[in-house]
Design brief:
Elements (H helix, E strand, L loop, with lengths): L12 E4 L9 H16 L3 E3 L8 E5 L11 H10 L4 E6 L3 H4 L4 H8 L5 E4 L2 H8 L9 E3 L23 E7 L8 H13 L5 E7 L11 E3 L4 H8 L4 E4 L8 H8 L4 E3 L6 H8 E3 L4 H21 L4 H22 L6
Helix pairs in contact: 1-11
């Protein structure tokens, strides 16, 4: 009876183990909101609890116990009752990022429930392979993407020689590991005159010990307001260390901004190789190379930026494949 009156039966049911939140709540929340909406538009039913109707669990972040709708132990129990239930574990974290010692263990324990593991970068996959993940298990890499309805390059500023080239970065965390040593070096180089024809915008939060000399600062913001600020700039700079698959440079790239990136930025380096210039010990030299390469880098960004579209498509194809295979195997899990 529930499918009467013109309601179409869903293709399948996907349950997410993370509860959606409004406002800024990290890359996992952005992934959740984008993918859950996308799957519904593609004809899937989406829910945030486990029951007998679930065909696939899309799970993420084993460490957010307070924000999880259900645990990985619940998934194992559900799979014991339903041999057709499949589980995808999205891995977007590690201990190196925050100098902790429990995240890798939590991810490894949760992986017992996974039929397929998705890493958000090649770097993160190799990190976990070196510690616990067996690369013979089914897995793939699907990079993060931001919402293209908000983060896009239409109307963005384009730098021209003779005018200041405006760099921007944005962070919710004020931890120094987010790259504030690099941003300070750039700020000092601009203030001293060593770095000419350059500006630096800093959006969000920063350590209280930092007294910016020339950087223009903005309070934390999200969504369209953030995208509007990013599109007023010409290049994005990130020095955030050991990032699994950070969203902040992705948001900049999707707004048409090539990257200046530190070589220890983890998964961000993969984006930097395509769309940017590396900067570490000599920001002035790196900035000069950035200016010289700006036109080519910007064309690369505009031609093939990361996007939430590509991310969601990757997950949808994976979910479709896993469910189809599970149903084909039959009740006993055999061909």
């Amino acid at each position: 009876m529930k499918w009467l009156f013109g309601k179409r039966r869903p293709i399948a049911t996907v349950a997410f183990n993370m509860i959606p939140r409004r406002g800024p709540y990290g890359g996992g929340n952005q992934w959740l909101n984008q993918l859950s909406s996308y799957l519904q538009r593609c004809g899937y039913a989406v829910q945030f609890h486990l029951d007998q109707h679930v065909d696939c669990v899309a799970g993420t972040h084993a460490g957010l116990s307070g924000g999880l709708a259900f645990r990985y132990e619940d998934i194992l129990r559900a799979k014991a009752k339903n041999p057709h239930l499949v589980c995808i574990q999205r891995i977007n974290d590690n201990d190196a990022r925050k100098a902790t010692n429990g995240m890798d263990r939590l991810l490894a324990e949760a992986n017992r429930a996974a039929d397929h593991t998705v890493f958000v970068s090649e770097w993160l996959r190799e990190y976990h392979v070196s510690r616990w993940f067996n690369p013979a298990k089914p897995h793939s890499v699907i990079p993060n993407g931001a919402d293209p309805a908000i983060f896009h390059p239409i109307g963005a500023a384009a730098w021209r020689r003779g005018a200041p080239l405006r760099l921007v970065t944005h962070h919710w965390s004020d931890n120094m590991s987010k790259g504030f040593d690099l941003y300070q070096d750039i700020d000092e180089a601009i203030a001293s005159g060593a770095l000419r024809e350059a500006e630096l915008w800093v959006i969000g939060r920063w350590p209280v010990k930092i007294a910016w000399r020339k950087a223009r600062t903005f309070p934390p913001c999200v969504g369209r307001k953030l995208a509007g600020l990013l599109r007023q700039c010409h290049g994005y700079v990130t020095g955030s260390r050991y990032e699994p698959g950070a969203m902040h440079p992705v948001e900049g790239l999707q707004c048409g901004l090539p990257l200046l990136y530190h070589p220890e930025t983890g998964g961000t380096v993969e984006l930097g190789h395509r769309f940017g210039i590396e900067v570490s010990h000599d920001p002035v030299m790196a900035f000069t190379r950035f200016q010289e390469s700006y036109g080519e880098l910007r064309q690369r960004v505009l031609a093939d930026p990361p996007s939430g579209d590509a991310m969601c498509l990757g997950y949808r194809k994976l979910i479709q494949h896993l469910i189809a295979e599970a149903r084909r195997r039959g009740p006993a899990g055999e061909d």
